[in-house]
Specification:
The structure holds two protein chains of two kinds.
Chain A lengths: L4 E2 L9 H12 L7 E4 L4 H12 L6 E4 L4 E2 L21 E2 L2 H10 L5 E4 L3 E3 L4 E2 L2 E2 L7 E2 L14 E5 L2 E2 L4 E2 L27 E6 L3 E5 L6 E6 L5 H6 L19 H11 L11 E2 L1
Parallel strand pairs in A: 2-3, 2-6, 6-11, 7-13, 11-14, 12-17
Antiparallel strand pairs in A: 1-17, 3-4, 4-5, 7-8, 9-10, 14-15, 15-16
Helix pairs in contact in A: 1-2, 2-5
Chain B lengths: L17 H9 L3 E4 L4 H9 L5 E4 L6 H8 L3 E6 L11 H8 L4 E4 L2 H12 L4 E4 L8 H4 L5 E4 L6 E6 L5 E9 L5 E2 L7 H6 L4 E8 L2 H6 L13 E4 L17 H12 L3 H10 L4 H8 L1 H6 L5
Parallel strand pairs in B: 1-2, 1-8, 2-3, 3-4, 8-10, 10-11
Antiparallel strand pairs in B: 5-7, 6-7, 8-9
Helix pairs in contact in B: 1-2, 3-4, 9-10
The chains are: A alpha/beta, B alpha/beta.
Keywords (chain B): Transferase
Protein name (chain B): CoA transferase subunit A
InterPro entries (chain B): CoA_trans_fam_I (IPR004165), NagB/RpiA_transferase-like (IPR037171)
């Protein structure tokens, strides 16, 4: 198996992790006024949500994972929300039990950023493992909070690695539910207000889901890569529209805010996202 | 009255040594972590703890992985175990893939609500419209069962109360009576303590009760929830202790690569069984590295 390659946008003006954070932040305009959250391994989403509150979504409220901070205003982006510095400048501290309350009742629970060791073309994610359950070839870290995809209004999926092993036709196990494999849309039995994944971010592209059958569809390809690169490195079919734009590079303002207000120590400039 | 002398009774200290704590843990099988108390984990291993069923906090890394690396875990409630962007939990992966530990396929609801249910003395908790489209009910049939809501007649899932025999918690500050301040986390500690038969707190600093009384709203665990207190300066090394010291990332990376290379025993011999006690462990890490971790917290 070839070693994963580092995704690079073809310029040294910004890193691919910075581009992902900026693109995520723009699409959070949709969530202005809602409450959302991030969880484990959420270095890029943490930066994105904070950037959105400075730009397109000033009325967004967010919950910063294990630090339990509401609306933190750190200027030195930590690698993990588990780092107590992710709590810096927060407005409130929310016990874990209150977070579970948000998920259990569903109301007041707008969006979250979820990931996994696999995602399939209907947006279902797997954190459990790969292979038959009594003889897993690869044991995953566990379902943790991605289960809340079943209760929050919608969720965003993100992956720091894009390959035929992470993007698959059908996940081995469903930790967080996306859409039904029969093309009928959201799975039955979930909170009625929960509409499913909206967008998928990877080191190569952004994807959304078709309106009728809720299948993965290419939305934009990051600078430095092509539609063919995306398809070659994916293990599932992806709907490709006639026109696929390039993901817009960060503007000077976005990059300035990111680097001076959120990530002064350059965590994302050095953060490697990979493919293949 | 003036010629009489009175002696007021003294409040009982709950402070014990780390070695005594290790022995208490080794006598029990069903262990819960309120967070990731590393000194108590090392003490438990030195005392020969084995055959444990572990209920970790919703995210756990080295505390649980080290117990697995030492072969001390029989069964594990898995919600999230890993080192986030530093990598997967290597001992857990190996043990789960080779089926040398039993995995209970859990998630945040099972751990938090199961613990809350036990903490409140309830038999089980109903969970509606969340597990339905996931594989968890199939993979965790002992803990996720269907019940009928007696008020509406609709079916929901139920999860059982999650009690433990012993619960281990790291605090930044505690007094000798068990009043404990846990900083930099999300308050799983109090429910974990309430849901356990015996609670041990390790504290970076032992402070006076006057200090606790200065800001009582900061007390995470009142003394009535705590059975024993251990003084463990830098007791969470190599993990983080909020406002006291950062994670020792190079040390954690060393652990990860040693276990991945099949050298878990060498790590354990060097850092757990080699030092005769926790003071010797801290001397092995060295004052330079320890005090440097206090920068910028």
């Amino acid at each position: 198996m070839a070693a994963p390659r580092i995704a690079h946008p073809g310029t040294d003006d910004y890193s691919m992790a910075e581009l992902m954070a900026v693109e995520m932040s723009r699409n959070l305009a949709f969530d202005n006024g809602l409450t959302g959250g991030v969880g484990t391994s959420a270095t890029i989403p943490m930066a994105a949500v904070r950037l959105a509150t400075l730009t397109v979504a000033p009325d967004l409220t967010w919950f910063c994972g294990a630090s339990a901070g509401i609306n933190p205003t750190f200027s030195e982006l930590p690698l993990s929300a588990h780092d107590p510095t992710a709590f810096v400048g927060a407005e409130a501290h929310v016990p874990m039990m209150r977070t579970v309350d948000l998920g259990m009742q569903g109301a007041r629970w707008g969006f979250g950023f979820n990931g996994g060791i696999q995602v399939d073309r209907f947006g279902n994610c797997n954190m459990i493992g790969i292979g038959p359950y009594d003889s897993l070839r690869m044991r995953g870290p566990g379902t943790v909070g991605v289960i809340w995809a079943a209760s929050m209004c919608h969720c965003y999926l993100y992956f720091n690695h894009h390959s035929t092993r992470t993007l698959v036709e059908k996940v081995d196990y469903i930790s967080s539910p996306g859409y039904n494999y029969d093309g009928s849309g959201r799975w039955a039995g979930l909170k009625p207000t929960s509409t499913g994944p909206r967008l998928v971010y990877t080191p190569l592209c952004v994807m959304d889901f078709t309106e009728d059958t809720c299948e993965l569809r290419l939305r934009s390809v990051h600078p430095g890569y092509t539609v063919e690169d995306v398809l070659e490195n994916s293990g599932c079919s992806i709907v490709v529209p006639d026109e696929v734009p390039t993901t817009a590079p960060p503007t000077q303002l976005e990059l300035m805010l990111l680097r001076t207000q959120i990530d002064r120590t350059g965590t994302l400039r050095d953060f490697q996202v990979t493919y293949g | 009255m003036t010629d009489q002398t009175f002696t007021l009774p003294q409040r009982r200290s709950k402070e014990i040594s780390l070695e005594e704590a290790g022995a208490l843990i080794a006598q029990r099988k069903r262990l819960a972590f309120g967070n990731e108390p590393m000194a108590l984990v090392r003490a438990a291993l030195r005392a020969g703890a084995e055959g444990l069923t572990v209920i970790p906090p919703v995210t756990t890394s080295l505390s649980t992985d080290l117990l697995i690396a030492a072969g001390a875990v029989e069964s594990l409630y898995v919600c999230y175990i890993g080192f986030e962007t530093l990598g997967m939990a290597p001992a857990f992966r190996r043990a789960a893939e080779s089926r040398t530990i039993e995995v209970v396929e859990a998630d945040e609801i099972t751990v938090i609500l199961g613990t809350r249910t036990a903490a409140g003395g309830m038999p089980f908790a109903p969970v509606a419209n969340i597990y339905e489209a996931t594989d968890l009910p199939r993979l965790n049939p002992d803990n996720l069962r269907r019940v009928v809501d007696p008020f509406t007649g609709t079916e929901t899932y139920a999860i059982p109360a999650l009690r433990s025999e012993i619960c281990l918690i790291h605090a930044q500050e505690a007094d000798i009576y068990g009043n404990a301040i846990c900083l930099g986390s999300n308050n799983q500690e109090a429910d974990k303590a309430l849901a356990s038969d015996f609670v041990i707190v390790q504290a970076d600093r032992i402070v006076s009760t006057d200090r606790i009384r200065e800001q009582p709203y900061r007390t995470s665990l009142p003394s009535n929830l705590v059975d024993a207190v251990v003084h463990a300066p830098f007791g969470n090394h190599p993990l983080v202790s909020g406002r006291h010291y950062q994670m020792d990332v190079p040390h954690v990376r060393t652990y990860l690569s040693m276990v991945k290379e099949g050298r878990a025993q060498e790590y354990l011999d060097t850092y757990v069984y080699g030092p005769k006690d926790e003071w010797a462990y801290l001397e092995l890490i060295g004052m330079h590295d320890l005090l440097t971790l206090q920068r910028g917290v």
